[in-house]
Amino acid sequence: MTEEKKKGKMTVEEAGRLGGEKTSETHGSEFYSEIGSKGGQKVRRLIQEGKEHEQE
Question: CA 56 to CA 54: how far, in whole Å?
């Protein structure tokens, strides 16, 4: 066991995995679909804003 584990600490990777598992237990597939759509819309908007900025 590493020294970190003995102290009760976890890595960022472990924390992310555990958080993801907890989220998947409490939210259904609709949740992931919704946040995926929101992320895609944000990326589209940022790309458009970048193109408009280049034209100035």
Answer: 6
